[in-house]
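Worked example (supplementary).
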Amino acid sequence: MKRFFIIAASLLWGAALFAQQALIPGTGIVSPEINADNTVTFRYYNPKAVTVEVSGDFLPTERITFTMDGRERSWDAPGRAALTEQNGLWTYTSAPLEGELYSYTLYVDGQKMMDPSNIYQNRDIATWTNIFTLSAKKGDKGWYYQVNDVPHGNVSKVWYDSPALGMQRRMTVYTPAEYETNKKTKYPVLYLLHGSGGDEDAWSDLGRAAQILDNLIAEGKAEPMILVMPNGVYFNQAAPGVAVNMFQPTMANSRSQSTVEIEDSFPDIIKYIESNYRVKKAKNSRAVAGLSMGGRQSAALSRKYPAMFGYVGMFSGVVPPEVDEATGKDKVLDAVFAAKPELYWIACGKTDGVMVNSLLLNDYCEAQGHPVTFYESEGGHIWRNWREYLTIFAQLIFK
Amino acid sequence: MKRFFIIAASLLWGAALFAQQALIPGTGIVSPEINADNTVTFRYYNPKAVTVEVSGDFLPTERITFTMDGRERSWDAPGRAALTEQNGLWTYTSAPLEGELYSYTLYVDGQKMMDPSNIYQNRDIATWTNIFTLSAKKGDKGWYYQVNDVPHGNVSKVWYDSPALGMQRRMTVYTPAEYETNKKTKYPVLYLLHGSGGDEDAWSDLGRAAQILDNLIAEGKAEPMILVMPNGVYFNQAAPGVAVNMFQPTMANSRSQSTVEIEDSFPDIIKYIESNYRVKKAKNSRAVAGLSMGGRQSAALSRKYPAMFGYVGMFSGVVPPEVDEATGKDKVLDAVFAAKPELYWIACGKTDGVMVNSLLLNDYCEAQGHPVTFYESEGGHIWRNWREYLTIFAQLIFK
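After joint prediction of all chains, the assembly is encoded as:
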C-alpha cells in the first residue's frame, strides 16, 4: 500500500501544481542576461514583430523638447536601442555597465510592454518597469543596494493615527539589525520622504533604503539609526492597492495646496515613533530628508519647526527662498539657521529642472552666511541619484 | 523678488516632475471600471490589433487536456472572453461579480500582456497578473480582504538566523493592532506557509492575510494572534528581488528532496519568534497551516513534531497516509493524534488535483477514529480558495 500512495501522491501533486496555478514558468528565454564583461543581453521572441526596442536608464538619455502651457520645455528621456532579429528572436547587448539597479521596458511595434522573460518589475508612481541589479563589487555604488552578507535590519509596515488628517495611515519603519539585541539602546531617527505620486513603499523598494543602511552600518560608515518612511500624499491612507481601491497615483494630485498638508500632520508621525520605538528625542537625533516633493517637504518642515530637526536633506527638491522685497530677507529661512542645524544639505543633478531653485536656495544661504552644503551630481530627476544621495547623506548625520 | 521666486519655483517644479520621472500617467482610459451593478468593464485601445481577449478568474474556467510524461492530464484554465472593437477601442463587460479580489491579463493578437490602464498588478511565482478588488458589503467574503475602518495590525519583514539552513532568512510577521498597546499581553501564533515557488510575501500580498485577521479580530470572530509567514523554499534567503539576484521561481525547485527541508529548520523560526515577540509558548497556542506545498509542510511538521502544534490546517495540500503493508497503519500519523491536536483540518476544492490525496488522508483518519475536519469548497488550486480557507481556519483556532 505504501508504494501506491507515494506514487499517487507525487503524480497528482505535480499535475495539480503544474496546472492550476497556471504557472508554466516563463518563456524559456533568458532576458536580461548579465554577461561576464558586465554587458547585458536582452532577448525577446516574436516572429511577427516589425520593430523591437529597449528603453532603459542604462542608455544615454535623449533630450526631448516639447511645449506645455505655451512654453517650450525639455527633459532627458531614457534612451532607446533597437533589438535585431534572427529567426524571430530579437536581441540587444548593452555596453559594459557599472554595478547599479537599472530599469527598462520594451517597445514592440511602438507598444510599450514588459519583458515577458523577466519577472522582476517595480512600479514608480503609475509606471511599471522591469528591473535588474548588476552585482557590484565592494565599494561600488551598487554594492550598497544589494543584500550582502551583513546583519539585516527589519522593515515594518505600521499604522498610526493622524488626528490632523482624520485617518489611520500606514508608514514604513526600518530598525537597524542591532535594535533586536541591544534592548536598552535608544536610536536616532531619519524621517525619509518620497516624491509626488509616490508612497510609503517607495524608499524601501526602488530606494533600497534598508539595504543601503544595512551595508553602511555594517561598514561602520553610518550610525545605527531608525528610518521612518511615511506616506506623503495628504489624502491617502496607504500605498495604492493596500487601502484605496483602484486609486490612480499621479504627480499632480499629491498636494492639497489649500487644506492641511503633510507638514501639519508631522507631529502625529513623530508622536507614534517616539511612543513606540526606543528613540533619542533630542533635535540632533532627528533628521529629515526627501526626494523631489519630499525634498520640498523636508525644507518646509525645517521652516515650520526649526527646533525639530538637527539635519535637513533636500534631494532634487527644495523650498526656494521667499524673500521680502523691502528687506531682501527670508525671515523664516533665517530662523532655521538661527536654530543652528548641524547640516543643511542640498543635492541636485546637473540636468535636473529643480537645479535652478536649488541654486537660488544655495546662493541665498551663502549670501547670508548660512552654512549650507551643496552636492551636485550628474544626471537628472531619477532614482539612481536619490539612492546615491541617501548613501551619502546617511554617512553625514548623527555623528 | 518674492513673486519672481515663487513663479520660477512652481513652473520649474512642474516641468521637472512632469518630465524626468517619465510619468505621463496612464493611458487616459479607465480599465477596469467597476459599474454600479457589479459588472466590470475592460477597455484597451489599439487600432492595429486583430484580436483582444481578457483572461481572468472571474470567467468560467475551461477544462484543458494535455499529455505530460506520456500520461493524459487535465486542468481548469482561467476562462477567456473576446473584447469587441469600435474606432480602435476594445471593450468587454463581465457578468455581475461578487465582492472578491480578481486576477486577469489581456491577450493581444495572442500575446499575453498587462492591461496598460491598470497599475494594480501582482506576481504569483513567475506569473504577473493585473488585479482588482470589487468592494464588498459586510459579510461578503471580499469584505474580509479589504482595508476597512477597523484597527490595523503591523506587518514586518524580519530576518532570523537559521543554523539548519546555514543562512540568514527573511520572514513576514503580522502582529494584531492591540499588540502595540497591550504591552504585557502574550499572544498565540499561527505559522502560515506558502506554496511551491512562493515566498514570504505571498500570504501578505495575494493572500490578504493581514486584512483578513484585522477584520476577523475587529468583529470578535478570531482571537488576536500573531501570524508568522516564513519563506518555505529551502535554498532561498528571501523573496525574489530582495536577496537572490534574478532568481527565477518555479514550482519545481522549491523542495530539495534530498538535503535539509524547511521542516528541519522550523525550530530556528520558532526560536526567533518566541525570543523576540510576546507569545504564548504552549502547544495549544501554536497553529500551523499552509497552502499546497505549505499544506504538505504543515502535515509534515505535525508528523515530525507531534507535540509542537495544537492546530494543523492543510489547504489544498497534505501528506497522504504512509501505511505499512503489514499492519495497515501509518504509525507516524497515529502518533500525531495520540498527542491530541485540538484541530486537524483538511480543505480542498472539488476540482483540485490534490483532492485524491486529501480524501485518502481523511478516509484513513476516519477509519482509525482520528478526529479530522474536512472542508470541501468549489473550484480548484487557486488563491480565491486559500483566502477563504484562511478566513475560516482563523476562526476555529485558539478558542
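Two points are worth noting when inspecting this output. Chain A has seven helices and 20 strands. Residues 1-25 of chain A have pLDDT under 50 and may be disordered.
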